[in-house]
Amino acid sequence: MAPTTGDYASAGEEIQRGITIAQDQLRLEGIQTKISFENACLPAQGVTALRKMLDKDKIEAIVSNYCVITLNAILPIIAKNSVITFQNSSVPEKLITSSPFTYATWPSIEQEVGAMIAAAGDESIKRPGLIYLESPWGSGYADAFRDALSNRGIKPLVDLSQGFDVHDFRSETTRLASTKSSMILAAHTGAVMASFLKQARVMNIQGSSIFVPSDNDDQAIVSSAGVAAEGVSLFSTESPKESPARSRYRSEYEKRYKRSPDPLSRHAYDQLILTARALSECKRDISCARTRIEATSNYDGASGQFSMTSKRTPLRPLYRKQVRDGAFRFVE
Fold first, then answer.
1. Phi, psi dihedrals of residue 90, rounded to the nearest 5°
2. Which in 67, 92, 206, 298 has the greatest CB count within 10 A?
3. Could you tell me if 98 and 130 lie in one domain?
C-alpha cells in the first residue's frame, strides 16, 4: 500500500518497481507470487484497502506499506488477521514493536536522528530548528529530535508542523532565518521537500545546515529542488562499497528503468524476497514464516546487509550522504 497519485506518487512508483524485480527473482527460484497494489496513504484509505485485499484478494502479507499514518490505522486489523506486514519507510521503533506482526528493513527514526545530531556537532545543535509533517511519521522525527536535544539541555528555536500537501513555507523559512538556526531537521519528503528547500534558499538558509529523513534519497527530489538541494544531508542504509547483491539489483534496475535505483525500491525488493521465501519454506504457515523472518541473519540484499533483531527491526549501519553537484553522494 502506497500513494500512486499526488505529491508522494513517486514513492508508490518506486515501491512497485522493486516489487516487480523481486517477483522475477522469486520466479527463478520457483516461487510464484501474486501482488495487489493499492493507492493508500491516509488512515481511512488504508483501512478500506486492507479490508478489500483481505476479503477479495485473500492476501497473506503486506510486503510494503509506505505511509506510517496508514500503518497506525491498520494495526488492529493486522493483529486480528495475523497479517505479516513490512513497513517501507523509517518509523518510530515503538510502532513496530507494538504489534508482533510488523517488521522493518529501515533503521528506526530514533537511530537516524541520533546520527544526524552527532554529525551536526556540538556547536551547530546549539541553535536547532525543526520543521515537520503533521503525521505519525513526521511527529516521530520531531519527538526523537526533541528528546535527543533535551538530553543535552537544548530546545529547538523553531518548532513548526504542517499538514499534508502544504507547499508554502515562507513563514517557516522566515522564522528559521531570523533565529539563525544552524542545524535544521526538515521532516518532509517528495515534492513538498523540494518546495521547502527552494524557499529555504530564497531566505539564504545554507543547505549544509539542513538534515532530511532517509526517505529523501531520491534523485527526483534533488532534481526538482535544483541548486537549493546542494549541501543537504541524510543518512542512508546503503554502504559506499557495493555488495554482489546490491550490484546485481542496480544492474537490473538500470537496465529496466534507465536510472539509478531509489532506496524505496531496494527495500521493497528485500521485503518481498524475505516474506515470500519464508512463506514458501513454511508451506504458507504464518507462525513458521514469522519465525523465519525474525531469524534473518547477515542477509545480503538490494538495500544492503542486515540482521533482524528481537524487536523486528534491522541491525545495520548508517552512512551519511550529502548533495554535491546535483546528487546525493557519500561523505567520508
1. -65, 150
2. 67
3. no
- Asked if residues 119 and 149 have their Cβ atoms less than 8 Å apart, the reply is no
Structural domain containing residue 73: 6-107+242-315
CA distance 272 to 35: 10
pLDDT digits (tens, 9 = 90+) for 154-190: 999 999 999 888 999 999 999 999 999 999 999 999 8
Q: Are residues 39 and 103 in the same domain?
A: yes
Claim to verify: residue 262 and residue 222 sit in the same structural domain: no
Tens of pLDDT, residue by residue over 267-310, are 999 999 999 999 999 999 999 999 999 999 999 999 999 999 99
Residue 328 lies in a domain: no
Q: ∠ CA(46), CA(47), CA(53), 5° rounding?
A: 85
| Residue written as grid cell 538500470 | 254
The pLDDT mean for the chain works out to 95
Q: Whole-angstrom Cα distance, residue 44 to residue 62? A: 17
Cell of 269: 525488493
